[in-house]
Amino acid sequence: MLISGSELFQAAKKGGYAVGAFNLNNMEILQAIIEAAEEENSPVFLQASQGGIKYAGIEYIAGMARVAAEKAKVPVALNLDHGTSFTQVVQCVRHGFSAVMIDGSQLSYEDNIAITQKCVEVAHPNGVSVEAELGKIGGVEDDIVVDEKDASYTDPKEAAEFVERTKVDALAIAIGTAHGLYKGEPKLAFDRLQEIASMTDVPLVLHGASGISDEQIRKAVPYGITKINIDTDLRVAFSQAIKDLLAEKPGEIDPRKILGPAKAAMKEVARAKMRLFGSAGRA
């Protein structure tokens, strides 16, 4: 069965590793993530963004994740990624999500606190964890677009107050990552990460981690990063595998033979990330 995201957060924080959170949009992506987690004996977050929910339907997303978790030999949580409304959070709680993220980073500081508090009040009694975001992470995440010039780092003092007032289970922070493909090599602000970690006791989340160097990821985890989001790297592996297959066999029409290699490619990406994050062998 699906377990609360708070269980994964706390185990990762205590164990000094990070759990990978991988976005799913269809069955093949889901199977790739679960197979990777089982082969690496790793706990895992499945995630559905607003775009993923619109594409597949919340009933299909929740149903697929529930079946996968029931069959899986490792701990699995299902998270709403970048929810932007209280209504959407309630809908996900009702459909069996075991974790939700409310992204109020586009709002004022006080309004972000208010909507996060409201989500916590609904989620926690149902055993559902809540992740929030403070600071603005650049790039594009479905309907959320933050121009590079508008991106802003998380303020450590605000983070400490935010966590205390909202009682969130995890906090997504902005320290130099971005959603989507990077134009150059990203540089994480480790001084700021260290300061945030020293002023809060909450598990920290790194969004936009596709494209961040392995060296920077390894350096970030000991500072309290306990969940790392991966989407773009899976998309790249998925699309490249299909392109390669159709280039080799342009007459292929069997979806299974087209999507099979794509699933295998995504699985290998996910397995590598789990080893990198330190969650392999931690299930």
Sequence-ordered SSE layout with sheet pairings:
Blueprint: H1 5-15, E1 19-23, H2 27-40, E2 44-49, H3 50-56, H4 58-71, E3 76-83, H5 86-94, E4 99-102, H6 109-123, E5 129-134, E6 138-141, E7 144-146, H7 156-166, E8 170-173, E9 178-179, H8 190-199, E10 204-206, H9 214-220, E11 225-230, H10 232-248, H11 255-277
Parallel strand pairs: 1-2, 1-11, 2-3, 3-4, 4-5, 5-8, 6-9, 8-10, 10-11
Antiparallel strand pairs: 6-7
Helix pairs in contact: 2-4, 2-11, 3-4, 5-6, 7-8, 10-11
Summarize the structure in words.
This protein is 49% helix and 18% strand. With 283 residues, the protein is an alpha/beta fold. It has a single domain (5-277), classed as TIM Barrel (Alpha-Beta Barrel). The strands form 2 sheets. An 8-stranded parallel beta barrel has the order 1-2-3-4-5-8-10-11, surrounded by 9 helices. The chain has a 3-stranded mixed beta sheet with strand order 7-6-9, with no helix packed on it. The longest helix has 23 residues, at 255-277. It is globular, with a radius of gyration of 18 Å. Mean pLDDT is 92; it is low at 144-150.
Q: Which structural traits does this protein have?
A:
283 residues; alpha/beta; TIM Barrel; eight-stranded parallel barrel; three-stranded mixed beta sheet; 11 strands; 18% strand
